[in-house]
């Protein structure tokens, strides 16, 4: 497959690129500066300058954008909508690295994780910004999108176990009562979604059993 990873220099982006390359896919990293990923091809370009022509020929475009600057949290929405606009009515699918805060706490789907009293206040604005972006994406029927939320504990340094559980809109816990996934195992799930081409127009989640 031909896969583009936008914001490939980030921690999630680098893991997704490495997993894809190891599977034999041809990967192009879209980065703003010197490439840090293991992609075979590199395009140095600001996300907001990426055009539909730049994304032609790809089977999948992975949006790994993240911004933790409190003054720029709106970019989670503006960047995602920009990429969606460039992929409007295109054959390429858009896979989005999402957040856990917008997952629901139970099957009633009334309360999101970010709204729980125990949710850290310092992360609440970021979680809200990512939730807002997901709400906008849900309205897009002109783009073949899939949004993948990690477990609540998204561990950049965690091991690659090679296994995961794919779930839906509700936060799930493993046998130890943990909502956990490593970046490496998340990258496996993301690449599986890329290869299987399922869950179009859906938000799914992933955790380690």
From TrEMBL:
Residues 8-187 form the NAD(P)-binding domain. InterPro entries: NAD(P)-bd_dom, NAD(P)-bd_dom_sf, Polyketide_Oxido-like. GO terms for molecular function: oxidoreductase activity, acting on the CH-NH group of donors, NAD or NADP as acceptor. Gene3D superfamilies: NAD(P)-binding Rossmann-like Domain. Pfam families: NAD_binding_10. This is NADH-flavin reductase. It comes from Floricoccus tropicus.
């Amino acid at each position: 497959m031909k896969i583009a990873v936008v914001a490939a220099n980030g921690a999630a982006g680098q893991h997704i690129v490495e997993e894809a390359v190891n599977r034999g896919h041809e990967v192009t990293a879209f980065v703003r500066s010197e490439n840090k990923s293991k992609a075979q091809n590199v395009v140095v370009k600001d996300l907001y300058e990426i055009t539909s022509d730049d994304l032609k020929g790809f089977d999948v475009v992975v949006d790994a954008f993240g911004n933790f600057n409190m003054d720029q949290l709106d970019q989670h929405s503006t960047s995602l909508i920009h990429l969606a606009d460039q992929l409007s009515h295109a054959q390429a699918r858009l896979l989005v690295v999402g957040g856990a805060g917008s997952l629901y706490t139970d099957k009633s789907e009334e309360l999101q994780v970010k709204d729980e009293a125990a949710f850290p206040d310092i992360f609440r604005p970021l979680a809200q910004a990512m939730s807002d972006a997901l709400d906008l994406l849900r309205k897009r029927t002109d783009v073949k999108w899939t949004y993948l939320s990690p477990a609540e504990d998204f561990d950049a340094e965690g091991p690659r176990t090679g296994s995961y559980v794919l779930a839906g809109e509700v936060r799930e816990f493993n046998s130890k009562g943990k909502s956990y996934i490593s970046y490496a195992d998340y990258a496996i799930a993301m690449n599986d979604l890329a290869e299987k081409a399922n869950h179009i127009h859906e938000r799914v989640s992933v955790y380690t059993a």
